[in-house]
Each structure stands twice: as C-alpha cells, then as structure tokens.
Amino acid sequence: MTAATPKIRFPHRHLLGIEGLSPDEISELLDLSESHVEQNRQTDKKRTTLRGRTCINLFFENSTRTRTSFELAGKRLGADVINMSVSTSSIKKGETLIDTAMTLNAMHPDVLVVRHPDSGAVQLLSEKVNCAVINGGDGRHEHPTQALLDALTIRRRKGKLSGLCVAICGDIMHSRVARSNIRLLSIMGARVRVVAPPTLLPAEIGRFGVETFHHMKEGLKDCDIVMMLRLQLERMNGSFVPSVREYFRFYGLDYAKLKVAKPDALIMHPGPMNRGVEIDGELADDIDRSVIREQVEMGVAVRMACLETLTGALPQSGGKT
Question: What is the pTM of this model?
Fold first, then answer.
C-alpha cells in the first residue's frame, strides 16, 4: 500500500520553519497527513514508501513526544531510523555542531531531524549537509511540525482554519510553538490573539500581526480555540512571574475563565503539561473540550507526511545533489 502522491511539488529542500510556506503547501502537507491518520489506526501500520532511506534523529534537547513520534513516523514508512543520544556523543567531548554535521554527512543519511536549544542552529547545520533537514525545534525560533499537527487537529474538528479565532495563552516569550502557530494560522486566514502577562511577551510582539491581551477573560472572549503554553521555567533567567500559584490564579485555564469562549471552544496544549500551573487537570482531561491527546496522535501522521514529502524530492539512486 502506498501513500497518496502530493498534488503539488514541494519546492523546499528542508523544513526549517513555517515562515516561507504558502497556503497551498501547508494544505498539501495537511492533506497528506490525513491519509496517514487512517493508516495509523489500522492493524498493519507499515508501508514501504521510505524503504532504503535513512532518518537520523539528532536531539540536543530532550523531547519524548517529538522524538518518539518522528521515530514512529520513519519506521511506519519503512525507513531505517537512528536516534542519536547527544549526552553520550562526541559533542559532549568538544566536537562542534559543524564537525557533527560533516561527520553525519559522510554517512549519507537522507533526512536529519534536529532539535537544538539555540535559535538558528538547525539552519546552520542544514547548510553543511546534503540531505533534507527537518527542524524539531530550535531555541525560541520555530517548531514547524508542532504547528502543522495543531493545524491538522483544528481542521479535523472544525472543518477549516480560515476565519477561526485562536487564543494562544501563556509563555509567549520563550515559545517556539507560539511563533510557528502564529505564522501558520495567520497564513491560513485565522484570527490570532495572544494572552500573557507583559513579562512573558516578546518585545517584538507588535510585529507578529496578532491581537494582544493581558487578561484571560478579555482574550478568550468568543474564541474558537484556546491554546495553552507551558511555563518554560528552564529558559527563564530572573523573575518573570511572582509565583506558580499566582500565575495559575490569573493565567491558568479553568472552567471559570473558559466560560467567555464559545460554547464549543476546543482546548489545546503542546505538552508536556504542568497541571495546576497553566491548565486545570480536570479541564485537560475533559473529552468534550480537550483535544490534547488527539494532538499527540496527529503528531505521528504529520511527521510521516513531512518525511515523505521531503524525501520525495531526493534522488532515488546514485549520489546526492
């Protein structure tokens, strides 16, 4: 069984961010992802689409969801998948990122999935290798496959992206998920709001083309989607919030704050969740409102579509270009 052939040729060698993608290219990736959702629900989940291809997951930051879903995605398409543990690699012995890129390039992989704590590191690596590179999240910059899986989750539930009102709430400053979602949703015609305390908004928020709110009840009013973000304490140098308890009181999502959104508003969270910090645990588990588990399922399908699309532009035999 083979996957649906993309109707348009994806013109990009890498997937480093949402920025630069067209509405048609985003829709094509989402459409291809749809076919993989159904595949992943079958008893026989494997295909041979990427047989003979090698995918390396190179993660400089821990991420159970992203790494595992990329691993599953590659294996379900028939690729050989290697997970590189940076904690035991030569990088810990002083090897530079460029040295690592050159070493991996000599092994002739077809796709590198890279997560790195520094913004721009994935692009730098992509310039030193011959294979396709997918950004699994770099610093505060972008996390394109997370935005794609969020968009797929919304589209499957709401039937569209255009015209929806989406509120992204919480730690916007440190969130690459927020940046990628803002870009994708804006490209696809959604109306995007951000809701956060002033200390957790980036200085350049005015250039993002979003509506900005500092109070949850104002920002959530009549929204179709409420997307909560994790409070990224590990990226904070200094005091950004008075306390976790105070943060939940004013910015944690609970049923009382959700009342001002539309009655059928959906709740999203990229994970991992801090229950009782950015979201009430009972609300997170509410099967009528929360699509958090569905986001995890869509992640595998979207990453399958990305791997398939990018490898489709690689040479089928002989040397790489």
Answer: 0.92
